[in-house]
Each structure stands twice: as C-alpha cells, then as structure tokens.
Specification:
Structural class: alpha/beta
Number of helices: 17
Radius of gyration: 20 Å
Bound molecules: nicotinamide-adenine-dinucleotide, magnesium ion
Oligomer: single chain
Length: 396
C-alpha cells in the first residue's frame, strides 16, 4: 500500500503531538517526512528519534544548530534546516503529500502558504493564517490545486455536515446557516467583576480541551470563536451574517449546519482533537483515531445558549472585523497576539486584552486585501500600535 508522506509544522505543540499519535496508529498509511518546531529542542529531538524524518526544521536558528549537533550521531540521515525559509522548504517537499499546519499564530502564515503553492493537502489547524490573509491564502489554494481540510474541530464538523458536492454553492445545496458551537471557555460563569483579576493559569484552564496557551487564552476571551467565524467565512465561502455562535458548554456537538427545509445536521464526538485530525488525514475514508467513543448516556444532556457580547467583547470585535473585511482581521489578529502574549507575561490584566484590541483596531485603518505585502505591513503596524497601547496601560 502506498503510504502518504506527512510534514508537521508545529510538531511539538498540542496539535502536533496529537497528529503524531494518530500517525503512530497507522504506520501502513503514513510516514513522517518532516517535523518542525520553533525552539523546543528536546521534544523535537525525541520526536525525530521516534519518527526518523528526512528533515527537521526549527524557526530559531540557534536551536536548529543545537538540534543538528544532537542528531548527528543517532540520526545522520536527518537534514536540519532553520528559519522561515527552512519551514517553507519542508512544507513544499516533493515527498510530503500532506502538510499539517499547526504552528500557532501569524508565524504559520508563510510556511502554510508555501504548502498551498506546492499543491499539498493542507490539514489546517493554524486558523490565524486564514484570518490574517484569507483572500490570498484561498487564491493560492485554488491556483495550485491544493486541498484544504479543516482541523479546527468546529470547522471539521461543518465540513462533515455540508454536502460532499458543494460545488454549486450554498443556495443550490439548500444550506441556510452555520451554527458554530463554543464551550464558552473557563470564564463563562465567572462574575463580571472578577474578570479583571483572572490570572494566566486560570484563563488557560479550559474545562474540556487541553491546548496550547495562546488558544487557551483566546478561548477564555472567546476571541477564539471570533477568529473561527472569520475562518469559517473563508473555508465555506460564506458571510458572517450566515454564522451563528451558539454556546454549548459540554463540547459534544462540534458545530451544525442548518438547511432550508428545517433540518439541522450536527457532528458529535468526544472533545479530542485526534478525531478531526484522523478525519482529515483519512478523508474521504475513515480510520481509527485513538479517541474515546462518545457515551451518550454519560453525556446525558446537551445545553445551548446565546453568547453574551458584554462579557466577551473580543467576540464582538472579531465579528465586526469579519464584516469590515480587507485587512481588518489582519489588524485584529495581530493586536490579539500581542495582547495575549502581554497577558501571559503578566504585563496587563485579562480585561485589558479586549481594551488593547479595541484601541488598536480603532487606531489602525484597514485597507483592501491587496497583496501579501499589505497584509504583512498592516500586521506590523498593528503590532506596534498594540505594543504602544500596552506600554501606556502599564504606566497607570
Ligand atoms: P502550541 O502552542 O501547543 O504549539 C505551537 C507550535 O508552533 C509548537 O510546535 C511551536 O514550536 C510552533 N511555533 C510557535 N511559534 C513558532 C515560530 N515563530 N516559528 C515556528 N514554529 C513556531 O499550539 P496548539 O495548541 O498546538 O495550536 C496550534 C494551532 O492550532 C493554533 O493556530 C491553534 O489556534 C490551532 N488549534 C489548536 C487546537 C488545540 O486543540 N490545541 C484546536 C483548534 C485549533
Ligand atoms: Mg475550535
């Protein structure tokens, strides 16, 4: 049987580790051809020893040199690359059929774009790449015949609930809207007055999912859901108005699609990222993922409620950026990345995250999404504006 070669961008993160877990269950179907990380040498080293990729790449040049040194004797055949160009190179290797895009944040954009230009099957976890450069990204995918399969659990669920042949668009398929579910995160019931005192470890303590720290904070502010609204618009060629966010604290229904006739199709499963990962890797077939099968009697009930935009201003900011279009989402994403990093470093309060985003988006004028240069420029401008705002907040 023909095995598929897989490159994992962001192998040492939560999604990367889950992907390797799924691959290890199916050695007859997949082989790892490249693994990447930013600077986590020890973990990438151990992963290389286990999966013996032809290439390893690290964003950080110094870390790459240390990794190359460590691998020299046990794994002389693994070539170590570095920097953005190294990441782009492994994302476009001829022997990589599938590229798992699981770098967190804007850092994932260029390597994921390289995978699109090389016409790969892209397993897309790195939602920020699509949020900041949706039009360009989707163009590259189309032009180069790449295949885009969503890993984000909600988008993977929507993909599963949409008709397989959706070529004629939504109208022909009778799709009315998307119901995008959200657990509401760890602060759903926290008294409003206590939100400013929320510490990073509390914000990262998600009730249902174990994830990297950035997306965990995004879940606590519900910016994650806002980014997912924008992600869904690009992936499914729809408008923000056709997406409704639904709070569903159990995280069992991963999202739904409503049809004109009143039918709602949902995808259910344990909150385990190995399910969407295995789905996207096996598609259009199915394979075992390692996740627990859902016990509906243990789940017993499913609750749904409307989101509270007062409690979660970041969700509102993201929905507004989705409507504005152009580089508004690029600016929003950059401001959010800077604000979340500052919160995790205890420079600002939890409630300052929304403040920094709101002030940055007000101060940075979006433009039409022309070329990649526009995106990268607005990304930088917004980062500078957000950092300036954080410096002001800190002097209070
Ligand atoms: P993580 O923080 O656990 O891992 C991030 C990975 O990216 C690491 O391997 C890290 O080395 C790499 N990385 C970070 N900065 C880099 C840089 N500058 N250059 C090169 N590599 C860099 O994050 P995660 O939770 O695995 O999330 C990864 C992506 O998947 C995010 O975009 C997130 O929104 C998305 N996602 C994650 C989950 C989840 O359950 N964890 C669910 C849905 C979507
Ligand atoms: Mg998600």
């Amino acid at each position: 049987m023909n095995t598929k070669g897989v490159c994992i961008l962001g192998a040492t993160g939560s999604i990367g580790i889950n992907t390797l877990d799924v691959i290890a269950r199916h050695p007859q179907k997949f082989r790892v051809v490249a693994l990447t990380a930013n600077s986590e040498i020890d973990r990438l080293y151990r992963q290389c020893l286990e999966f013996r990729p032809a290439y390893a790449a690290m964003g950080d040049e110094h870390a790459a040199a240390l990794l190359a040194d460590k691998l020299k004797v046990p794994l002389p055949e693994t070539q170590v690359l570095s920097g953005v160009s190294g990441l782009e190179q492994v994302a476009s290797l001829p022997q990589a059929d599938y590229v798992m895009a699981a770098i967190v944040g804007a850092a994932g954009l260029l390597p994921t774009l390289a995978a699109a230009r090389a016409g790969k099957r892209i397993l897309l976890a790195n939602k920020e790449a699509l949020v900041m450069a949706g039009a360009i990204f989707m163009d590259e995918v189309r032009q180069h015949g790449a295949e885009l399969l969503p890993i984000d659990s909600e988008h993977n669920a929507i993909f599963q609930c949409l008709p397989a042949a959706n070529k004629g668009g939504w109208k022909q398929a009778g799709v009315r809207r998307i119901l995008l579910t959200s657990s509401g995160g760890p602060l759903l019931r926290t008294p409003m007055g206590a939100l400013s005192g929320v510490r990073p470890d509390e914000a990262c303590a998600h009730p249902n999912w174990a994830m990297g720290r950035k997306i965990s904070v995004d879940s606590a502010t519900m910016m994650n859901k806002g980014l997912e609204v924008i992600e869904a618009c690009w992936l499914f060629h729809t408008t923000p108005e056709q997406i409704e966010v639904v709070i569903h604290p159990q995280s069992v229904v991963h999202s739904m699609v409503e049809y004109e006739d009143g039918s709602i199709l949902a995808q259910l499963g344990s909150p385990d990222m190995r399910i969407p990962i295995a789905h996207a890797m096996a598609w259009p077939e199915r394979m075992e993922s390692g996740a627990d099968h859902l016990d509906l009697f243990a789940v017993a009930r499913l609750d749904f409620e409307a989101p509270d935009f007062e409690r979660f201003p970041c969700l509102r900011h993201a929905c507004e950026a989705a409507v504005t279009g152009g580089t508004a989402a690029t600016i929003l994403n950059a401001a959010n990345e800077v604000a979340v990093a500052a919160f995790l470093e205890k420079q600002i309060l939890f409630t300052d995250i929304a403040r920094v985003i709101s002030d940055t988006t007000a101060a940075t004028k979006p433009r039409p999404m022309g070329g990649l240069e526009d995106i990268l420029e607005d990304d930088q401008l917004a980062r500078i504006a957000a950092k300036n705002r954080i410096a002001e907040i800190r002097t209070y």
